[in-house]
Automatic annotation (TrEMBL):
One of its GO terms (molecular function) is metal ion binding. The lineage of its organism: Eukaryota, Metazoa, Spiralia, Gnathifera, Rotifera. It comes from the Eukaryota. This is CENP-V/GFA domain-containing protein. InterPro entries: CENP-V/GFA, Mss4-like_sf. Belongs to the Gfa family. It comes from Didymodactylos carnosus. Keywords: Lyase, Metal-binding, Zinc. Pfam families: GFA. The keyword Lyase applies. Residues 4-128 form the CENP-V/GFA domain.
């Protein structure tokens, strides 16, 4: 199956995701939660929630166990130990899935969902047509 490959800044880690997984618009999500913001050092996280079977990671990301989560369950966050780029995270809410950072890729598909919108800065507009949630929908 054909895939698209993203890379961390130093290119030691690459992430190949099938085009099918990247094409699932409802799985392209912006997260405005504070943890994702800090982890990305940015306005928000833009991720694709992809089945593990659709992802191939080359290289050895380091894992940070994020324990300061809403659910209280640890959330492993993988990053490049050399350049610091965030790579993916996993979540007990999405078993068998990797939540991959779309900033690693040349093209970012349009997100269909925004979560933790209550954290979005007032000067940032909602994405036209995207579903809006104040927290993570159950
Ligand atoms: Zn790197
Ligand atoms: Zn988040």
């Amino acid at each position: 199956m054909s895939s698209t490959t993203g890379k961390c800044l130093c290119e030691q880690i690459s992430v190949a995701v099938t085009k099918e997984a990247l094409g699932a618009a409802d799985k392209i999500v912006v997260c405005h939660c504070k943890n994702c913001r800090q982890n990305n050092g940015s306005l928000a996280a833009v991720d694709v929630i992809a089945p593990e079977s659709s992802v191939k990671i080359t290289g050895q990301p380091k894992i940070y166990q994020d324990t300061n989560t809403d659910s209280g369950k640890p959330m492993p966050r993988a990053f490049c130990g050399n350049c610091g780029s965030p790579i993916y995270r996993t979540s007990p809410s999405f078993p068998g899935m990797l939540i991959i950072k779309l900033g690693l890729f040349d093209e970012i598909p349009k997100p269909a969902t925004e979560v933790y919108c209550k954290r979005r800065p007032t000067w940032v507009k909602a994405i036209d047509g995207a579903k809006q949630f104040d927290t993570m929908p159950k």
